[in-house]
UniProtKB/TrEMBL annotation:
The lineage of its organism: Bacteria, Pseudomonadati, Myxococcota, Polyangia, Polyangiales. Residues 195-327 form the GGDEF domain. It catalyses: 2 GTP = 3',3'-c-di-GMP + 2 diphosphate. PROSITE patterns: GGDEF. This is diguanylate cyclase. InterPro entries: Diguanylate_Cyclase, GAF, GAF-like_dom_sf, GGDEF_dom, Nucleotide_cyclase, Rev_trsase/Diguanyl_cyclase. Gene3D superfamilies: 3.30.450.40, 3.30.70.270. SUPFAM superfamilies: GAF domain-like, Nucleotide cyclase. PANTHER family: DIGUANYLATE CYCLASE DGCM-RELATED, REGULATORY COMPONENTS OF SENSORY TRANSDUCTION SYSTEM.
Protein backbone atom coordinates (compact mmCIF):
# COMPACT_ATOMS: atom_id res chain seq x y z
CA UNK A 1 0.00 0.00 0.00
CA UNK A 2 1.34 3.45 -0.90
CA UNK A 3 1.86 6.13 1.73
CA UNK A 4 -1.12 8.22 0.61
CA UNK A 5 -3.52 5.29 0.89
CA UNK A 6 -2.11 4.30 4.29
CA UNK A 7 -2.59 7.85 5.56
CA UNK A 8 -6.21 7.87 4.35
CA UNK A 9 -6.97 4.61 6.17
CA UNK A 10 -5.36 5.86 9.38
CA UNK A 11 -7.19 9.19 9.25
CA UNK A 12 -10.52 7.44 8.68
CA UNK A 13 -9.83 5.06 11.57
CA UNK A 14 -8.89 7.91 13.89
CA UNK A 15 -12.13 9.73 13.06
CA UNK A 16 -14.23 6.63 13.71
CA UNK A 17 -12.51 5.95 17.04
CA UNK A 18 -13.43 9.39 18.41
CA UNK A 19 -17.14 8.47 18.63
CA UNK A 20 -18.88 6.86 21.62
CA UNK A 21 -19.85 3.64 19.89
CA UNK A 22 -20.02 0.27 21.71
CA UNK A 23 -16.77 -1.59 22.32
CA UNK A 24 -17.61 -4.38 19.87
CA UNK A 25 -18.04 -1.85 17.05
CA UNK A 26 -14.72 -0.20 17.94
CA UNK A 27 -12.91 -3.53 17.81
CA UNK A 28 -14.45 -4.55 14.48
CA UNK A 29 -13.57 -1.15 13.01
CA UNK A 30 -9.93 -1.71 13.98
CA UNK A 31 -9.69 -5.23 12.57
CA UNK A 32 -11.38 -4.14 9.33
CA UNK A 33 -8.96 -1.21 8.99
CA UNK A 34 -6.03 -3.51 9.72
CA UNK A 35 -6.99 -5.80 6.85
CA UNK A 36 -7.48 -2.76 4.64
CA UNK A 37 -4.03 -1.49 5.47
CA UNK A 38 -1.97 -4.69 5.42
CA UNK A 39 -1.70 -7.58 2.96
CA UNK A 40 -3.06 -10.11 5.45
CA UNK A 41 -5.71 -12.84 5.35
CA UNK A 42 -6.96 -12.45 8.91
CA UNK A 43 -6.88 -9.76 11.62
CA UNK A 44 -7.96 -10.13 15.22
CA UNK A 45 -8.04 -8.36 18.56
CA UNK A 46 -7.99 -10.13 21.89
CA UNK A 47 -8.39 -8.29 25.20
CA UNK A 48 -7.44 -9.28 28.72
CA UNK A 49 -10.39 -9.93 31.01
CA UNK A 50 -10.81 -7.98 34.26
CA UNK A 51 -8.82 -10.57 36.22
CA UNK A 52 -5.99 -10.21 33.63
CA UNK A 53 -5.66 -14.00 33.47
CA UNK A 54 -7.43 -14.75 30.18
CA UNK A 55 -7.15 -13.32 26.69
CA UNK A 56 -10.65 -13.12 25.21
CA UNK A 57 -11.57 -12.86 21.55
CA UNK A 58 -12.83 -9.35 20.78
CA UNK A 59 -13.18 -9.02 17.01
CA UNK A 60 -12.01 -10.73 13.83
CA UNK A 61 -11.96 -9.82 10.16
CA UNK A 62 -11.13 -11.84 7.07
CA UNK A 63 -10.56 -15.59 6.89
CA UNK A 64 -12.29 -17.59 9.61
CA UNK A 65 -14.36 -14.60 10.69
CA UNK A 66 -17.54 -16.65 11.04
CA UNK A 67 -15.94 -19.52 12.97
CA UNK A 68 -16.45 -19.81 16.77
CA UNK A 69 -13.90 -17.59 18.57
CA UNK A 70 -11.14 -19.05 20.74
CA UNK A 71 -9.88 -17.65 24.03
CA UNK A 72 -6.44 -18.15 25.58
CA UNK A 73 -4.90 -18.13 29.00
CA UNK A 74 -2.47 -15.30 29.60
CA UNK A 75 0.90 -16.40 28.26
CA UNK A 76 -0.62 -19.04 25.96
CA UNK A 77 0.00 -18.90 22.22
CA UNK A 78 1.73 -16.08 20.36
CA UNK A 79 -0.86 -13.51 21.47
CA UNK A 80 -0.54 -14.62 25.07
CA UNK A 81 3.24 -14.31 24.83
CA UNK A 82 2.96 -10.79 23.37
CA UNK A 83 0.69 -9.71 26.23
CA UNK A 84 2.84 -11.38 28.89
CA UNK A 85 6.10 -9.90 27.58
CA UNK A 86 4.73 -6.58 26.33
CA UNK A 87 6.73 -7.18 23.14
CA UNK A 88 5.74 -7.50 19.46
CA UNK A 89 6.14 -10.70 17.47
CA UNK A 90 6.79 -11.37 13.80
CA UNK A 91 7.01 -14.99 12.66
CA UNK A 92 7.92 -16.04 9.13
CA UNK A 93 6.79 -19.66 9.54
CA UNK A 94 4.63 -20.65 12.51
CA UNK A 95 5.47 -24.33 12.01
CA UNK A 96 8.91 -23.65 13.46
CA UNK A 97 7.82 -21.46 16.39
CA UNK A 98 6.98 -23.18 19.68
CA UNK A 99 4.66 -20.34 20.73
CA UNK A 100 2.19 -21.02 17.93
CA UNK A 101 -1.12 -22.68 18.87
CA UNK A 102 -3.51 -23.52 16.04
CA UNK A 103 -7.17 -22.94 16.97
CA UNK A 104 -8.96 -22.73 13.61
CA UNK A 105 -8.46 -25.22 10.80
CA UNK A 106 -10.78 -23.32 8.44
CA UNK A 107 -7.91 -21.22 7.07
CA UNK A 108 -4.17 -21.68 6.63
CA UNK A 109 -1.63 -19.73 8.68
CA UNK A 110 2.03 -19.60 7.72
CA UNK A 111 3.21 -16.22 9.00
CA UNK A 112 1.95 -13.67 11.48
CA UNK A 113 2.57 -10.38 13.26
CA UNK A 114 1.26 -9.26 16.63
CA UNK A 115 1.50 -6.02 18.60
CA UNK A 116 0.58 -5.36 22.24
CA UNK A 117 -2.16 -2.83 22.93
CA UNK A 118 -0.89 -0.37 25.53
CA UNK A 119 -3.08 1.99 27.56
CA UNK A 120 -2.07 3.97 30.66
CA UNK A 121 1.15 2.00 31.02
CA UNK A 122 -0.52 -1.44 30.89
CA UNK A 123 -0.99 -4.02 28.17
CA UNK A 124 -4.74 -4.49 27.65
CA UNK A 125 -4.66 -6.88 24.70
CA UNK A 126 -3.11 -7.78 21.37
CA UNK A 127 -3.70 -6.88 17.71
CA UNK A 128 -2.53 -9.55 15.28
CA UNK A 129 -2.59 -10.46 11.59
CA UNK A 130 -1.89 -13.72 9.78
CA UNK A 131 -1.15 -14.78 6.22
CA UNK A 132 -1.22 -18.06 4.34
CA UNK A 133 2.06 -17.02 2.72
CA UNK A 134 5.39 -17.69 4.35
CA UNK A 135 7.39 -14.58 5.37
CA UNK A 136 4.52 -12.34 4.25
CA UNK A 137 5.38 -9.42 6.53
CA UNK A 138 8.37 -7.11 6.57
CA UNK A 139 9.55 -4.49 9.04
CA UNK A 140 7.48 -1.84 7.24
CA UNK A 141 4.28 -3.82 7.87
CA UNK A 142 5.27 -4.32 11.50
CA UNK A 143 5.61 -0.56 11.94
CA UNK A 144 2.18 0.02 10.38
CA UNK A 145 0.64 -2.58 12.70
CA UNK A 146 2.33 -0.87 15.66
CA UNK A 147 0.91 2.47 14.56
CA UNK A 148 -2.57 0.94 14.35
CA UNK A 149 -2.19 -0.60 17.80
CA UNK A 150 -0.96 2.63 19.35
CA UNK A 151 -3.78 4.67 17.79
CA UNK A 152 -6.45 2.15 18.75
CA UNK A 153 -5.59 1.14 22.30
CA UNK A 154 -6.64 4.31 24.23
CA UNK A 155 -10.12 4.63 22.65
CA UNK A 156 -10.61 0.87 23.00
CA UNK A 157 -9.85 1.12 26.71
CA UNK A 158 -12.24 4.05 27.12
CA UNK A 159 -14.99 2.06 25.39
CA UNK A 160 -14.22 -0.95 27.58
CA UNK A 161 -14.49 1.15 30.74
CA UNK A 162 -17.83 2.56 29.57
CA UNK A 163 -19.08 -0.98 29.08
CA UNK A 164 -17.77 -2.09 32.48
CA UNK A 165 -19.90 0.61 34.08
CA UNK A 166 -22.93 -1.44 32.99
CA UNK A 167 -21.76 -4.93 31.99
CA UNK A 168 -19.75 -7.68 33.65
CA UNK A 169 -16.62 -8.23 31.58
CA UNK A 170 -16.48 -12.01 32.01
CA UNK A 171 -20.08 -13.02 31.35
CA UNK A 172 -21.44 -9.98 29.46
CA UNK A 173 -24.38 -10.01 31.86
CA UNK A 174 -25.37 -6.67 33.37
CA UNK A 175 -23.43 -5.91 36.55
CA UNK A 176 -24.85 -5.45 40.05
CA UNK A 177 -25.17 -1.66 39.69
CA UNK A 178 -27.83 -2.23 37.05
CA UNK A 179 -30.01 -4.55 39.14
CA UNK A 180 -32.05 -2.25 41.38
CA UNK A 181 -32.67 0.58 38.86
CA UNK A 182 -33.86 -1.92 36.24
CA UNK A 183 -36.00 -3.77 38.79
CA UNK A 184 -37.65 -0.50 39.83
CA UNK A 185 -38.34 0.26 36.17
CA UNK A 186 -40.00 -3.13 35.62
CA UNK A 187 -42.03 -2.83 38.83
CA UNK A 188 -43.36 0.55 37.74
CA UNK A 189 -44.25 -0.86 34.32
CA UNK A 190 -46.02 -3.83 35.92
CA UNK A 191 -47.92 -1.51 38.26
CA UNK A 192 -49.24 0.51 35.32
CA UNK A 193 -50.31 -2.59 33.40
CA UNK A 194 -51.50 -4.65 36.40
CA UNK A 195 -48.88 -7.20 35.42
CA UNK A 196 -46.27 -9.26 37.26
CA UNK A 197 -42.53 -9.20 37.75
CA UNK A 198 -40.54 -12.20 38.94
CA UNK A 199 -36.96 -12.66 40.05
CA UNK A 200 -34.73 -15.72 39.82
CA UNK A 201 -31.79 -15.69 42.21
CA UNK A 202 -29.22 -18.25 41.01
CA UNK A 203 -26.09 -19.46 42.78
CA UNK A 204 -23.69 -21.98 41.22
CA UNK A 205 -23.25 -24.95 43.55
CA UNK A 206 -19.78 -25.69 44.98
CA UNK A 207 -18.22 -23.14 42.64
CA UNK A 208 -15.31 -22.46 45.02
CA UNK A 209 -14.13 -26.02 44.38
CA UNK A 210 -13.92 -25.27 40.65
CA UNK A 211 -11.54 -22.37 41.28
CA UNK A 212 -9.55 -24.29 43.90
CA UNK A 213 -9.08 -27.41 41.77
CA UNK A 214 -8.95 -26.06 38.21
CA UNK A 215 -7.90 -22.42 38.65
CA UNK A 216 -9.60 -19.09 38.07
CA UNK A 217 -9.30 -19.21 34.28
CA UNK A 218 -11.46 -22.35 34.19
CA UNK A 219 -13.75 -20.79 36.81
CA UNK A 220 -14.22 -17.75 34.59
CA UNK A 221 -14.99 -20.08 31.70
CA UNK A 222 -17.71 -21.78 33.75
CA UNK A 223 -19.26 -18.41 34.60
CA UNK A 224 -19.18 -17.38 30.94
CA UNK A 225 -20.72 -20.64 29.71
CA UNK A 226 -23.38 -20.57 32.45
CA UNK A 227 -24.45 -17.09 31.38
CA UNK A 228 -24.55 -18.22 27.73
CA UNK A 229 -26.78 -21.19 28.58
CA UNK A 230 -29.12 -19.04 30.65
CA UNK A 231 -29.51 -16.59 27.77
CA UNK A 232 -30.43 -19.46 25.44
CA UNK A 233 -33.03 -20.75 27.91
CA UNK A 234 -34.88 -17.47 28.53
CA UNK A 235 -36.71 -14.79 26.54
CA UNK A 236 -35.10 -11.77 24.94
CA UNK A 237 -37.00 -9.48 27.34
CA UNK A 238 -35.55 -11.21 30.41
CA UNK A 239 -32.60 -9.41 32.00
CA UNK A 240 -29.57 -11.35 33.26
CA UNK A 241 -27.48 -9.68 35.97
CA UNK A 242 -24.30 -10.94 37.60
CA UNK A 243 -24.80 -9.97 41.21
CA UNK A 244 -21.25 -10.91 42.18
CA UNK A 245 -19.02 -13.98 42.41
CA UNK A 246 -21.09 -16.98 41.31
CA UNK A 247 -24.46 -15.33 41.98
CA UNK A 248 -26.76 -14.25 39.15
CA UNK A 249 -30.21 -12.66 39.03
CA UNK A 250 -32.76 -12.93 36.24
CA UNK A 251 -35.39 -10.18 36.05
CA UNK A 252 -38.50 -11.51 34.30
CA UNK A 253 -40.96 -8.80 33.21
CA UNK A 254 -44.65 -9.67 32.92
CA UNK A 255 -44.05 -13.08 34.48
CA UNK A 256 -45.94 -14.82 37.27
CA UNK A 257 -44.69 -17.45 39.71
CA UNK A 258 -45.70 -20.49 37.61
CA UNK A 259 -43.89 -19.33 34.48
CA UNK A 260 -40.88 -18.16 36.52
CA UNK A 261 -40.61 -21.58 38.19
CA UNK A 262 -40.81 -23.26 34.78
CA UNK A 263 -37.99 -21.03 33.54
CA UNK A 264 -35.84 -21.98 36.53
CA UNK A 265 -36.46 -25.66 35.81
CA UNK A 266 -35.54 -25.13 32.15
CA UNK A 267 -32.25 -23.47 33.15
CA UNK A 268 -31.46 -26.46 35.37
CA UNK A 269 -32.21 -28.85 32.52
CA UNK A 270 -29.78 -27.04 30.21
CA UNK A 271 -27.05 -27.38 32.84
CA UNK A 272 -27.76 -31.02 33.61
CA UNK A 273 -28.02 -32.00 29.94
CA UNK A 274 -24.30 -31.79 29.25
CA UNK A 275 -21.13 -30.82 31.12
CA UNK A 276 -18.97 -27.78 30.51
CA UNK A 277 -15.79 -28.57 28.58
CA UNK A 278 -13.07 -26.03 29.32
CA UNK A 279 -9.32 -26.47 28.84
CA UNK A 280 -9.57 -30.27 28.76
CA UNK A 281 -11.67 -30.22 31.96
CA UNK A 282 -15.13 -31.76 31.80
CA UNK A 283 -17.24 -30.24 34.56
CA UNK A 284 -20.80 -30.90 35.64
CA UNK A 285 -22.12 -27.69 37.19
CA UNK A 286 -25.43 -27.39 39.03
CA UNK A 287 -27.27 -24.32 40.28
CA UNK A 288 -29.62 -23.51 43.17
CA UNK A 289 -32.44 -21.15 42.21
CA UNK A 290 -34.82 -19.06 44.29
CA UNK A 291 -37.97 -17.63 42.68
CA UNK A 292 -39.98 -14.67 43.95
CA UNK A 293 -42.88 -12.85 42.30
CA UNK A 294 -43.57 -9.24 43.18
CA UNK A 295 -46.30 -8.44 45.69
CA UNK A 296 -47.49 -4.92 44.90
CA UNK A 297 -46.92 -3.93 48.55
CA UNK A 298 -43.23 -4.81 48.37
CA UNK A 299 -40.22 -2.60 47.91
CA UNK A 300 -37.48 -3.75 45.52
CA UNK A 301 -35.29 -4.73 48.49
CA UNK A 302 -38.05 -6.87 49.96
CA UNK A 303 -38.59 -8.68 46.67
CA UNK A 304 -34.86 -9.29 46.30
CA UNK A 305 -34.62 -10.56 49.88
CA UNK A 306 -37.40 -13.10 49.32
CA UNK A 307 -35.74 -14.41 46.16
CA UNK A 308 -32.42 -14.59 48.01
CA UNK A 309 -33.97 -16.49 50.93
CA UNK A 310 -35.60 -18.95 48.53
CA UNK A 311 -32.25 -19.55 46.86
CA UNK A 312 -30.61 -20.31 50.23
CA UNK A 313 -33.51 -22.64 51.04
CA UNK A 314 -32.67 -24.50 47.82
CA UNK A 315 -29.11 -24.82 49.13
CA UNK A 316 -30.32 -26.13 52.49
CA UNK A 317 -32.54 -28.72 50.79
CA UNK A 318 -29.56 -30.22 48.97
CA UNK A 319 -28.79 -27.83 46.08
CA UNK A 320 -29.54 -28.32 42.36
CA UNK A 321 -33.20 -27.37 42.73
CA UNK A 322 -35.70 -24.54 42.33
CA UNK A 323 -37.54 -23.14 45.35
CA UNK A 324 -40.42 -20.66 45.11
CA UNK A 325 -40.44 -18.00 47.83
CA UNK A 326 -43.25 -17.84 50.35
CA UNK A 327 -45.70 -15.08 49.36
CA UNK A 328 -45.44 -11.88 51.38
CA UNK A 329 -48.00 -11.75 54.18
Amino acid sequence: MDAQRALEVLLQLTAELTSDRPLEEFLKTVTDATLNLLAADHASIRLLDTSRTALLSGARSGAGETEPPADFKRGEGVGGWVVEQGQPARIDDVEFDSRWVSVDASYKVCSLMAEPLWSSGEVIGVLSVTSSRRAAFREEEQLLLRLLANCSAPPIERARLRRLAMFDDITMAFNHRYLTPRLVEEMERASRSSGDVSLLYMDLDHFKMVNDIHGHAVGDGVLRMFADRVRKAVRRVDVLVRRGGEEFVLIMPQTGATQAHATGARIQQTLNAEPFEIDMARLRQTVSIGVATWDKRETPDQLENRADEAMYEAKRLGRNRVVVATPKI
